[in-house]
Design brief:
- This protein is mainly alpha-helical and 149 residues long.
- It has helices at residues 7-25, 41-63, 75-93, 96-109, 116-137.
- The longest helix is centred in the middle third of the chain and has 23 residues, at 41-63.
- The radius of gyration is 19 Å and the shape is flat.
């Protein structure tokens, strides 16, 4: 079954759904006070803003000028989301290098053209560049290699 949505309607639903999920997920984090912001303050704020932006985009699509419906594949969205979630899951166990390589490969699978040499070069540049910034320069405490090595 193919669902026909305009690009704006799909974007609005995606943003509102992502914001609702993040708000639900972080609901039990403490808000804190304005003087001492708690762990839940920023996630709840960003999640609420995502919901508002998604609803605005969706309502503008419903009551504004409509674009032609778009038929597309779910593959790009699935590939990018699997890359992001895979990165989050792999970072702790497999290390930064494997997690970043997975993210680059999954993101490139979203496109139509996939060239292994290009993906390998991009993965190396991302690993070296981001690793230099976050691991070396900012001294963030994550493992480059799996924790058991």
């Amino acid at each position: 079954m193919k669902v026909k949505l305009t690009a704006n309607a799909a974007s609005g639903l995606f943003f509102a759904g992502l914001g609702a999920f993040a708000l639900w997920y972080g609901w039990n984090y403490p808000m804190g006070t304005p003087a001492r912001i708690g762990a839940g303050y920023f996630p709840k704020l960003i999640s609420s803003l995502l919901i508002v932006v998604g609803l605005i985009v969706l309502l503008r699509d419903w009551w504004g000028e409509r674009e032609a419906p778009v038929e597309g594949s779910a593959r790009p969205m699935i590939a990018v989301l699997s890359g992001v979630f895979g990165f989050a899951l792999l970072l702790e166990t497999a290390g930064f290098i494997a997690a970043t390589a997975w993210l680059v490969v999954a993101a490139r699978l979203a496109g139509e053209d996939f060239a292994w040499k290009e993906v390998l070069a991009l993965a190396v540049v991302m690993i070296v560049g981001i690793g230099a910034i976050f691991w070396y320069a900012l001294s963030l405490p994550f493992h480059l290699l799996p924790y058991w090595i």
